[in-house]
Amino acid sequence: MPDVNVVGAGPNGLAAAVILARAGLSVQVTERESRPGGALRTEELTLPGFRHDVGSAVHPAALASPFFRAFGLTDRVPFITPDVSYAHPLSGGRAVLAYRSVDRTADSLGRDSRAWAAVFQPLLNRLDGIVAFTGNQLLRWPDDPRAALDYGTRVLALGSALSRLVFRGEEAAALFAGVAAHTPGRQPSLVTAGAGLLLAAHAHAGGWAYPEGGSQAIADALVADLLAHGGTLRLGVEVRSPADLEPARVTLLDTSPVFLERFAGESLPANYRRALRRYRYGSGVAKVDFALSGPVPWANPEVRLAPTVHLGGSRAEVLGAERAVARGQVAPHPFVLLNQPGVLDLTRAPGEAQTLWAYTHVPAGSGVDQTEAIVRQIERFAPGFRQTVLASTARSARGMAQLDPNLVGGDILGGAVTLRQLVKRPVLSRTPWKTPVPGLYLCSASTPPGPAVHGMNGWYAATLALRDEFGIEELPKLSPDTALA
């Protein structure tokens, strides 16, 4: 009989399991899919030999995460860090690039050169403090108040009507609009600006790195450490209720609040169940994976330098597309987030072939196949793209939810990212990972600090369970050199 059950082998469930197993507890992880990883799976989705990331592909948050730093992730998994973190094509064959060097990026932005440097250089100077501030609950005083102040003033400027006064030129305005559009919602807004600032700061600091061979490598490293410390992993087992698990002192759920309510049922107090039902989910995504005969024929060849590409045109076009989705419409000319890992990682496809991953935001639960809309948007900036397509596999938002029930309505962020739900995730509490049911915890992206592959949701839930359920105050060592022989 295990000490701990973990339901869900996504990044947060595995992070929690590693910590608990390292603390000397017996841990069993149960996963409904045939492979672990959740958003970190890498599979042949189109043609044999073409390796596609099922979910998350690029991992700046992992490199900055306190959990993955303690875990020694880069010592366990080979990462590729491009000189160009992301590119943003514009009409007329133009493009603007976000280099790892903030100075080089600023120098390419003409009239906004000083403005870009003024926004981001202070953030880079205090990035560890900003990561600590944004990676924790917002119900506590920041460890580095100056970092929080620098970050907050820029969120206010770029998340309001003042944003047009910060970046006045087309290039810088589009570059920031694209990175802010990683978080669905109307722009400008405090939430999209805050997320965009943090992502862009990572782009100029550690860079937007990604694992050689695919994101599965991160999941595999976590599983290997779990097994080395006595943990067990059950795959292809669907959990619906506690009866589907062996009895254990503690259970952690790397799942949605919808699953939590169904799993715990009447054992949850009525007011807590009502709070879970008030939790809101965001827009869905419609994703397409392509197998290509060769590189994307970008009109501007410099776009080939960037594994991540933002397609949407000008700031006004990006904002218009995202506002349409926020109104519950499928944008006719969507903002497309695209990843072309093969520009630097030659292991993803045979020979000169390439894989390409692209998605766009759509209303929650949409059944629309966005393949044609995505192809049109790529063709706009890469004429002749259609001729390179060997095969494609599409999933609507509805299909994403069918693939993984935790992606409610196709929401890949574990719930709407709003100011309210940054502190009420999924309930307002100083320990939101702990449920009212003794020994039952939630450790998914539906808890603070929210979405991204950083493992911190699992970190907080696991350390809380160690303290409250097992009386263990000290976090175990996680680095590779402390692994069992």
How would you describe what is shown here?
The chain is 37% helix and 15% strand. Helix 6 packs across helix 11 and helix 7 packs across helix 8. It is α/β, with parallel strands linked by helices. It has 2 domains: 4-42 and 214-279 and 413-482, 3-Layer(bba) Sandwich (FAD/NAD(P)-binding domain), CATH 3.50.50.60; 79-209 and 283-403, Polyamine Oxidase, Chain A, domain 2. The mean pLDDT is 96.
Write the layout of secondary structure elements.
Blueprint: E1 4-7, H1 11-22, E2 27-31, E3 42-43, E4 52-53, H2 60-64, H3 66-71, H4 73-76, E5 79-80, E6 84-89, E7 95-99, H5 102-107, H6 113-125, H7 127-134, H8 145-158, H9 163-166, H10 170-180, H11 190-204, E8 210-211, H12 216-228, E9 232-235, E10 250-253, H13 257-264, H14 270-278, E11 284-292, E12 308-311, H15 315-326, E13 336-339, E14 354-362, H16 371-381, E15 389-395, H17 397-403, H18 419-423, E16 440-442, H19 456-470
Parallel strand pairs: 1-2, 1-10, 2-9, 6-12, 10-16
Antiparallel strand pairs: 3-4, 5-8, 6-7, 11-14, 11-15, 12-13, 13-14
Helix pairs in contact: 1-12, 1-19, 6-11, 7-8, 8-11, 10-11, 10-15
